[in-house]
Each structure stands twice: as C-alpha cells, then as structure tokens.
Amino acid sequence: MIFLLKLQSMLSIFKKWAATLQGGAVDWDDLEATLIQSDLGLPLTEKILASLKRQAVSAETIQSATAAEILKLWPVPPTAPSLKADRLNVWLVIGINGVGKTTSIGKLAHLYGRENKVHLVAADTFRRRRPWISSRFGHKRASTGFTAGTEGGDPAAAAFQGLEQALKEASSLALIDTAGRLHNKENLMRELEKIKRVIDSRVKGAPHEILLVVDGTNGANAIQQAEVFHQALGLTGLIVTKLDSSSKGGAVAAIKAQTGVSPYFIGTGETLQDLKPFDPQSYVEKFF
Ligand SMILES: Nc1nc2c(ncn2[C@@H]2O[C@H](COP(=O)(O)OP(=O)(O)OP(=O)(O)O)[C@@H](O)[C@H]2O)c(=O)[nH]1
Ligand SMILES: [Mg+2]
Q: Within a 10 A sphere around the Cβ of 242, how many other Cβ atoms?
C-alpha cells in the first residue's frame, strides 16, 4: 500500500516535471524532488543538481544530462567476479531478512556451476530453512556440494565445516549463506564479523567477495543497509533483487555514490535463470 502511494506520488511528480519541460524552463525544485523520490539520496541529488546548473543545461536536454550525470558513477561498467584458479574462492552472502539471499545463491550456483564445482554452505543456523537447489529449485547437480550447520548451532562453525568440506571436495567456489539480520542489531553484526574471521582462519585471505543482497524495492532503506554493512565488513559488491517489479532501483546509484560499492548482478525473478549482470546503461534507461 505504502509502495503504491509512493509510486503514485512519483508518477505525479514526473508528470509535473515533464509539463514544466514542455514549457521550456527547468524547474530545479521539481527536479530535486524527483531525484529524491527516486531514492537517489540527498548527497548524490545535490551533486547532480550542482553539476547540471554549472552546465546551464536547457529544459530540452535536462533528461539526457541527468542520465549522463548518473552514468558518471560507472566510468567502467562493473564486471561480475571471476574465479581464480588454484584456490577455493569463497563468497560470503549477507543482508537483511527476506531480501533474496538464498534465492540469489541458488542463481549464482546455477551460473557458476556450469563450469565449476560449487559448494553451498548454509551458515544460517539462526533460523535455518533447509534450502534451495534441491528443495526450492528442484535442481541437483553432481558438481554441487552442500553443507548445513546444525539447528541453533554456531553459524561461524557451520561456515568452517562447510569450507573443510569444500576443500576436501576440491571445489572452486564456496557460497556461504547467512541468516537475514537487521543492520541495527549489534550482536548479529558482531556474529557476521566472527564468521568473516573464521573463514579467513580456514582459507587465508577469504572471503574473496562479501556480497550484500538488497531488495530493489526497498528504496532509501537499502542505502542505509549498504552503509552499515559496508562499515562493519567491507563489501565488495551488491546483488539487487526484485527488479522485475516496477521498482527502478534508484538506491543503486545512491549506494555507489555513498559507499563506492556497485552491483555485480540484478535479480529479475524467482527462477534460477533470473540473474543478470548489472549494466549501468540499461539501469539509467529504465530510470527515465
Ligand atoms: N520477484 C522476485 N522475487 C525474488 C527475487 N529474489 C528473491 N525473491 C523472492 O523473495 C523471497 C525471499 O527470498 P529468500 O531467498 O528466501 O530471501 P532470504 O534473504 O534468503 O531470506 P532470509 O533467509 O529469511 O533472510 C522469496 O519468495 C523469493 O522467491 C527476485 O529477483 N525477484
Ligand atoms: Mg535465506
């Protein structure tokens, strides 16, 4: 309901803005409101406005100029992480409840499992669901291993055991799933730091990727999540889910501006195939 109201108000602002453009003059207040409503966040919105004013853009070119400003965030499009040979690559997947961590891990296993031996580690013993691949997706692959922690057990211990098993099976990639947690719950954030330390104690230098999953429909909340998780753990990339909805995922640009972290992938549905590389150009096109 709140989402619909927000969408309606965004649409009316866009319409008003478009009408202004037809009249020839740029209404800077309206443009500012539009960018904020689109979840670009205040710092990025102000930066974009300042730059557009400096360029003295006309009403006719304001849309393309704004798109160009957002694209400046990615002079080079982010590339999905590749696996280094001769090591167990370890990726830790984190985020708040229900954003799509487990689903995204299933998708990553599907994508990377085509050419690599993948091991899935359920370190989500806090509220463990017997997950994925086999159950959610009805999909089993001989090359996919699986380790789950015990119910109510220590997630860091589950991660450790999972890595042991992945090493034993000579896997190329271990994907570590974690329980959803609110970024403002101190003890749960400490738990993630412990998982990270324990991973490094078993595979030196790991985790090689720390991926935050954010729900693309979460708007400004996603910006705050990214900031807190990045500060606590040092994110290497994002997966932005649920972009098959009407959401434009505006927060992606704000997150990049405020933390430097880019999405590697976007989730565009609930099946295994619904994972696409993040492309700044299409992102901006969808935006306008
Ligand atoms: N439409 C759509 N739904 C998605 C996408 N990714 C995940 N979902 C759905 O979101 C819901 C939650 O997904 P999960 O993968 O269980 O989320 P999670 O982050 O692992 O949840 P917790 O472990 O409980 O924190 C499920 O109904 C998924 O099917 C996506 O890209 N698009
Ligand atoms: Mg999960």
A: 21
